[in-house]
């Protein structure tokens, strides 16, 4: 009596690949199987092979095989859900071993997940994609992915869930801005978030901080009149903003902006930072960027 066949990841893979090859005329006649059934069985075996590779700790082979399974499911079914699921599995493994490959799989998964997935699940995939873009230094791609997540949550009437990715997208818009138009886009994004958050009781407390970010973007225009007008606009939007330390900071910053005084500019920020616990790396980056602009202007003037 022969030994039973040992089923390994490799044998599952080989069996799956064989089924993906169209059968010969004679094979079709003998088996009576339908081509689509054969292809579906092949895709399923590739998925099982990928599972086995993953369990064995062979992450690279697992990720590649999940990709192949996804591609097999994609071409043989109207429902792209299995293809999306397997591409996400590949993405999750690549996150551990190759960020660029994870980004590539995330891009494919997003396209496949347009149908058959809930809004929430698809939006979380956009957020994961954005995180991956940031990890490989593609801030523009991250901004667009966060924007897609925020818009998706809005379409699902989930304003509270939309606020976080929208804020990340606005911050990234400011980080990548190099012209007044870029800063205007970032400012307008923050203003849109502030307006939405004002309609939510649990988010309203953070509106002052959002308006501060909008004001920082406005100050980065380098135009005092524009900044003054925007501060007045913020006061009209939020009645408590005029008495806030965020508003005082923006108004105090108008003077060093007009005088091109980088020392006073940073001194005001440092004083605010000492009394406020909500200063982040984004605030630091934007203030130091504008400090450099003011320093250059001061040097040119002198």
In short:
The chain is mainly alpha-helical and 302 residues long. It has helices at residues 9-20, 25-31, 35-55, 59-76, 81-97, 99-112, 119-135, 139-155, 159-176, 180-197, 207-219, 224-237, 245-259, 262-275, 281-301.
Note the main attributes of this structure:
78% helix, TPR-like_helical_dom_sf, 0% strand, soluble NSF attachment protein activity, transport, mainly alpha, 302 residues
Plain-language structure description:
Helix 1 (9-20) runs antiparallel to helix 3 (35-55), helix 5 packs antiparallel against helix 6 (99-112) and helix 7 runs antiparallel to helix 8. The protein has helices spanning 9-20, 25-31, 35-55, 59-76, 81-97, 99-112, 119-135, 139-155, 159-176, 180-197, 207-219, 224-237, 245-259, 262-275, 281-301. It is built from 15 helices and no strands. The chain is mainly α. The protein is elongated. It has three domains: 7-23 and 31-74 and 83-98, no CATH class; 119-176, no CATH class; 201-302, no CATH class. The model has no long low-confidence stretch (mean pLDDT 91).
Kindly report the average pLDDT value: 91
Specify Rg, calculated over alpha carbons.
Answer: 27 Å
Number of helices: 15
Helix/strand class: mainly alpha
Low-confidence stretches: none
The biggest sheet amounts to: none
* Count of structural domains: 3
Order of helices and strands: HHHHHHHHHHHHHHH
The overall strand count is 0
Helix content: over 70%
Distance between the termini: 96 Å
Overall geometry comes to elongated
Strand content: under 5%
